[in-house]
Amino acid sequence: MGDAAPARVTSARWRSLDGSGLDHVTLAIDAERVVARGVVIGEQKGVRYGVYYRVDLDPLWRVREVALGAADGRGLHLLSDGQGHWATGQGAPLPQFDGCFDVDLSATPFTNTPPIRRNAWKTGERAELRMVYVPFDSFEPFVDGQIYTCLEPGRRFLYEAADGSFTSELTIDEHGLVVDYPSLFAREP
Predict the structure, then answer these.
(1) Which residue from 64, 87, 93, 172 puts its CA 20 to 30 A from 153's CA?
(2) The overall pTM is greater than 0.90
């Protein structure tokens, strides 16, 4: 066979600070792609959920495929060309998401990682992004504006909702995974 290096694998687990949820993700990185597989249990707007997610990214940390399945039978499958165009899993275009390069899954801090990993950040550098946001209570995605500002490269970022409704300072590890997300998530040791 080939001389391809084996995937580097790392895992992380977070608990929601309101006590309603737990998230576990395993990240496999090789020369061809990045694959995040995770499971989340929690509650949003009074709706309890159990969700499996898989986010496939290319080596530049651009989302290419998102697959979600809930314990109650709901599911969502989205494809991206990595250039800001999206389609259903069957290939039907979703022009309402044009210009979105990332997905934000409501109940996992993992989806903060791709925009952080994709860029070579300098202190004070800021990026305004459009995300395909997927709330786990409804599984009905919509566009969400988010702003990332690098406070300390490879270590700390300011996350802001573009509408000004939320701000949090994120601490990350050497893999770009959130360690501390004040008011929402705490990483389990």
Answers:
(1) 64
(2) yes
Question: For residue range 32-85, what is the model confidence (pLDDT) as tens digits?
Answer: 999 999 999 998 888 899 999 999 999 999 999 999 999 999 999 999 999 999
Q: How many domains does the chain have?
A: 1
Q: Which two tokens stand for residue 94?
A: 């979703």
Domain extent, residue 175, equals 8-187
